[in-house]
Automatic annotation (TrEMBL):
This is Integrase. GO terms for molecular function: DNA binding. Coiled coil: none annotated. Residues 1-90 form the Core-binding (CB) domain. It comes from Melioribacter roseus (strain DSM 23840 / JCM 17771 / VKM B-2668 / P3M-2). One of its GO terms (biological process) is DNA recombination. Residues 108-323 form the Tyr recombinase domain.
Length: 326
């Protein structure tokens, strides 16, 4: 238990959690920020952050670099979490933290599957997981974006998918592959039947984003708001005393893809996210312009998308001098 909760004021970490949710931060970011704030406080022997400042922040962030050997992105996330605490909860201005030992950022090229490798891995998958991974590879969506997809966000006529609340809380449109239209239609039909059975049992609820549940009390039972890839079992919300169906857990997809990569004998350090990298690279190799790919991926900066120009097969046809030796 970190710091006392009074009748009028919740615990410090609960205040952070509420502020993050009010500002629509993702659940992953919320858990990461809470975790870093906890570590910061414990590192300084449970002193209240209000009693500390720039010097203590510097010591902790430098400790992560020098003793824990974290990556630059991890170090930045920890710093952002602590600064968020001071700015939004404690209301204490921390203008600049001088003298931090920063980790040097190393830019790694993304791992990319060839078309043949992607096909082999997908062939090792089955059922709903296979359909889901095909969708990720065919649309360029992130794992979380695919899991959070709702029935209403697939437009079969326009052959496009609306990705809601992507990175940076932005909506975008991506392509719906023609090969997925009929399999997805069939899958959604099964999801509808499952939803009807849930309704008959007195359930059929799902989680709605932001304040939509208060604005539209019955919307959580409407089919269009159901997840395209629902979980097999229900989740019980103690606060709302409500049983609802959430989407498949990300670990189900991650474990299945790791296993499929091994079975397909692909000697690359790939993951679910590698299908997103492969989507972008293969489009680039097919002649799709970089700006279009940027839009499909939802990248804020073209520089982020440009990394795929370094991993595309642009040296095809070039012979090494060694190959010309008789």
């Amino acid at each position: 238990m970190i710091f006392k909760e009074t009748k009028d004021k919740p615990k410090l970490l609960n205040q952070v959690r509420m502020a993050l949710r009010t500002n629509h931060y993702s659940l992953k970011t919320e858990e990461a920020y809470i975790g870093w704030i906890k570590r910061y406080i414990l590192y300084h022997n449970k002193r209240h952050p209000n009693e500390m400042g720039a010097e203590e922040i510097k010591k902790f962030i430098s400790f992560l670099a020098n003793e824990k050997n974290v990556s630059s992105s991890t170090q930045n996330q920890a710093l952002n979490a602590i600064l968020y605490l001071y700015k939004n909860i404690i209301k204490k201005e921390i203008n600049f933290v001088d003298g931090i030992s920063y980790v040097k950022r190393i830019r790694h090229l993304p791992t990319v599957f060839t078309r043949e490798e992607a096909q082999k891995i997908i062939a090792e998958l089955e059922g709903v997981v296979q359909l889901f991974v095909k969708m990720l590879y065919g649309t360029g969506m992130r794992l979380s974006e695919g899991l959070q997809l709702r029935v209403k966000d697939i437009d079969f006529e326009a052959k496009q998918i609306t990705v809601r609340d992507g990175k940076g809380e932005k909506d975008r449109i991506t392509i719906l592959p023609e090969k997925l239209i009929e399999p997805l239609r069939g899958h959604i039909k099964k999801v509808r039947n499952l939803h009807l059975k849930d309704l008959q049992k007195g359930f059929g609820f799902t989680v709605l984003p932001y304040a939509l549940e208060r604005k539209y009390p019955n919307a959580s039972k409407e089919f269009i708001w159901q997840y395209v890839f629902p979980a097999k079992s229900f989740i019980y919300d103690k606060e709302r005393k409500l049983k609802y169906r959430y989407h498949i857990h990300e670990s189900v997809i991650q474990k299945a893809v790791r296993s499929a990569i091994q079975k397909a004998n692909i000697n690359k350090q790939g993951s679910v996210h590698t299908f997103r990298h492969s989507f972008a690279t293969h489009l680039l190799e097919s002649g799709v312009d970089i700006r279009t790919i940027q839009e499909l991926l939802g990248h804020k900066s073209i520089r982020t998308t440009m990394v795929y120009t370094h991993v595309m097969n642009k040296f095809k046809g070039i012979r090494s001098p060694l190959d010309n030796i008789l």
